[in-house]
Amino acid sequence: MSEAKILVVDDEDNIRDMLSTFLVKEGFSVFTARNNKEAVESTRENDFNLALIDLVMPDANGIQTLKDLHSVNKNIICIIMTGYATIDSAVEAMKAGAFDYVAKPFNLDEILLIIERAIEYQRLQGENLLLKNQLKTKYKFENIIGNSDEIIKVFQVIETVSDSDSTVLIYGESGTGKELVAKALHYNSKRRDKYLVPVNCGAIPEDLLESELFGHMKGAFTGATSSRIGRFELANGGTIFLDEIGDMSLNLQVKILRVLQEREFIPVGGTKSVKVDVRVIAATHHDLEKGVREKTFREDLFYRLNVIPITIPPLRTRKSDIPLLVQHFIEYFNKERSSDIEGVSPEVMKTLMEYNWPGNVRELENLIERLVIFNSKKKIINIQDLPNKFQNKEEGMPLSHFKLPEQGLCINTLLNQIENDLIIQALNRTGWVKEKAAKLLNLNRTTLVQKIKNRKLENKVY
Length: 462
Fold this sequence. Notes:
This protein has 462 residues and is α/β, with parallel strands linked by helices. The protein is 46% helix and 12% strand. The strands form four sheets. A five-stranded parallel sheet has the order 2-1-3-4-5, with helices on both faces. Strands 7-8-11-6-12 form a five-stranded parallel sheet. Strands 9-10 form a two-stranded antiparallel sheet. Strand 1 (5-9), helix 1 and strand 2 (29-33) form a beta-alpha-beta unit. The protein is globular, with a radius of gyration of 26 Å.
């Protein structure tokens, strides 16, 4: 937030000074302009996130300034300010592309809330632009790899229900690709041009998850120094993906149920309801019906979520897909690592087909990435290139026994991959219960969660 650059455009010195002083104290970088000409010149010289524009100025009205600024920087968000508020001028401003419209005299906290919403909107817009650019190669359901009967059934359900607004509940073990299915559902739906907002309910501490989902008002709790909109509001018009919803507390389950029933929620510390139009896709590796019986998951919420269930089969039940997945990952990492590996030997493929894959497709992907790193100069990966556990050798060979390849290697890449492998092993061994995995690795839970997020270990493409 502190890196955001704001332009204040107003011909009144006191308004410019007041807004500039206030916004600088809030951590923004602030520039000012007295008229349209200065505003356009300043926008050509600076990459502003947002502009606050007075509606009435000597050389041009605020609507014209908004248009001129957009012609220089199409991504700048503009908020119109005026002491002559009318319905017609508000409508004109919004039609011209204004993010919001505020009347003078205004409350500075109100201005701050609008700015925070605008910048959060801009940030999410950038994330979704990246996702849309990746859509052709990553998130179409045709590119979920596999031709087994089990995975074809998943394809058929995705194709049938993508354009529906019905709630979907995705079941699957960790590593099977639940988030990829959620992305396929969204990007093949009529909501594809709006946002897909993911929330990992198992990775966010319970005391922060409510604020993450619904937002909070300034002063709602210790540390809430400013108001913030939540993920449901950001997803308005699009889709929210609630991953690992089975880890959510009963208290929060009640509030999720209200959103599903009423299409509205109240931010933490707020008094007014916020209306939203959001499609909900949820996912879990838990048996929620068992959770209902054991009173750890609300029955009414379960039936609201379980409108369209999709079960992703574990890799051990669709082993005929392994050759396709192996070749896909080799091609993917060849491009990423500038390698030219053609494939694996028949002996390697036989070994991979016989392995049980407790970590599912994610484990296979990590293995292929490791093999490409270690064997980048080879054409074919052989059995001796596999880790010890695939060769019936004792696990945990000391690194001092590792043989440095003749062509050398990048030690940072190697160490990162080793750490990734250890994290995945710990997560698989504990059923992706992060607190238990953190204990195995002698890490704080928050440190492990941050490593998983930074290394994108829950957001791989397969």
